[in-house]
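Quarterly update from the structural biology core.
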Amino acid sequence: MNITVKRVVMVAIFSALTTLLYILVKFPLPIFPSFLDINISMIPVIICAFVLGPIDASICVLMRFLIKLPMTSTMYVGELADLIMGLGTCLPCAFIYKTNWKYKTLIAFISVPVMWVCLGIITNIYINIPFYIDFYFGGDMTPLLGMCTDAFKLISFGHITNVTFDNFMLYYILLAVIPFNLLLSLIVVIITAPLHKRLRIVYDKIGNSQSS
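Predicted structure, tokenized:
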């Protein structure tokens, strides 16, 4: 099997794994608003970024996006936000790992939660929350305030009780988006790191084959 075929097969495997995890493995945490689900589908994408590079990892994210579209429950908005976050997370990670930096692996892993949290803030402010308010609640924020207020109280140990239309987004970002995405990205990194260590031999073999 030549390198091109091997590469296509590996991208297909990583794409299938990330799609299956994306569709099947998700669950909420009681301390966060109910519509925020823990999802570990970025693990195969990050491994692909290390093994094959940024283009192949991006293909995995794109394939996950396209396969999930017919099953959307959010009029493609949730999938679009996940596409942006997936690409914005895997690309820096892959580019950093391909450098000759001394601590490239550590820096690549650190970039995952940094980019994940930053993109989580952006997509929630400009994509997710406006969509939820307009599509599900007809432009009325009141139901969303009700859904999130109890979670805000729990996360803040009862200190946040006066959630209003004016301060909702600030509390949502500080008490839900940032801690949720930080926790989720750290879970992905913690699971991926030992897998990466065990797969280093595979990385080296692929790299040597491509350079020969």
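The radius of gyration is 19 Å.
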